[in-house]
């Protein structure tokens, strides 16, 4: 099960929960907010994608509460604490940034945020992937938006990279980090679902799933 605590520039954090354990993906909120939004059930291990405040705002506070943060390190590491097997991939962004392939007892997940590249993998059950803007929906000044365009995933690029992807075991695609100004969320969800044939959802800014 994938829980959304929040997404976007004001803060991103997600939880993967399985019977055997749970993992926090990024922690872009204060400890208090993370606790409240997870209803007091916050995992004790965080996988951090990169150190930009929407992803890492809560890192230090989270560590100070005796939790563990994984960021980089070995390219292949076993997180024994919660029973997950993690493979990390460095992906292009304006700072060092990682995508994580996460094998739980029950499912295999791919977590990709703040990059233009979707790693192509077989056998994933859940794809948690950034869909930040659409070239068609950009309402802010293009020059200002240029930096985001170079370091974030557009709907168009995502659709292109999903061509030929292995959807045989895929249960859901969860779109994350949508821009408030530069993406028509309904259209993005509909287009990804139509092209892939996989149930597609989008994380909502303040937690939970977007429902129109
Ligand atoms: Zn970033």
What does this structure look like?
The protein has helices spanning 31-37, 53-56, 59-64, 142-151, 155-161, 185-196, and strands spanning 2-6, 13-17, 22-25, 45-47, 68-70, 76-79, 84-91, 97-103, 108-112, 126-130, 172-176, 200-202. It has one domain (2-202): 4-Layer Sandwich (Metallo-beta-lactamase, Chain A), CATH 3.60.15.10. The chain is built from 6 helices and 12 strands. With 212 residues, the protein is α/β, with parallel strands linked by helices. Zinc ion (ZN) is lined by residues 50, 52, 93, 114.
Discrete helix count: 6
Poorly predicted parts: none
Find the CATH superfamily.
Answer: Ribonuclease Z/Hydroxyacylglutathione hydrolase-like
Total count of strands: 12
Helix content range: 10-25%
Radius of gyration: 16 Å
Summarize it.
With 212 residues, the chain is of the alpha/beta class.
Give a quick set of tags describing it.
12 strands, globular, 212 residues, 6 helices, Metallo-beta-lactamase, Chain A, 22% helix, binds zinc ion, five-stranded mixed β-sheet, single chain, seven-stranded mixed β-sheet, alpha/beta
Write the layout of secondary structure elements.
Elements (H helix, E strand, L loop, with lengths): L1 E5 L6 E5 L4 E4 L5 H7 L7 E3 L5 H4 L2 H6 L3 E3 L5 E4 L4 E8 L5 E7 L4 E5 L13 E5 L11 H10 L3 H7 L10 E5 L8 H12 L3 E3 L10
Parallel strand pairs: 3-4, 4-5, 9-10, 10-11, 11-12
Antiparallel strand pairs: 1-2, 2-3, 6-7, 7-8, 8-9
The protein binds zinc ion.
């Amino acid at each position: 099960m994938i829980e959304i605590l929040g997404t976007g520039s004001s803060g991103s954090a997600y939880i993967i929960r399985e019977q055997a354990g749970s993992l926090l993906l990024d922690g872009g909120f204060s400890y208090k907010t993370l606790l409240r939004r997870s209803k007091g059930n916050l995992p004790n291990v965080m996988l951090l994608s990169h150190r930009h405040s929407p992803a890492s705002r809560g890192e230090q506070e989270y560590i100070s509460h005796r939790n563990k943060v994984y960021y980089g390190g070995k390219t292949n590491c076993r997180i024994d604490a919660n029973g997950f097997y993690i493979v990390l991939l460095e992906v292009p962004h304006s700072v060092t940034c990682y995508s994580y392939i996460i094998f739980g007892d029950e499912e295999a997940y791919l977590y990709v945020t703040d990059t233009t590249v979707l790693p192509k993998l077989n056998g994933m059950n859940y794809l948690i992937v950034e869909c930040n803007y659409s070239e068609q929906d950009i309402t802010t000044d293009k020059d200002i938006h240029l930096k985001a365009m170079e370091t974030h995933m557009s709907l168009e690029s995502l659709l292109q990279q999903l061509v030929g992807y292995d959807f045989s075991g895929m249960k859901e695609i969860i779109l994350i980090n949508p821009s408030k100004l530069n993406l028509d969320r309904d259209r993005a969800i509909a287009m990804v679902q139509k092209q892939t044939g996989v149930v597609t959802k989008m994380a909502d800014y303040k937690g939970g799933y977007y429902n129109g």
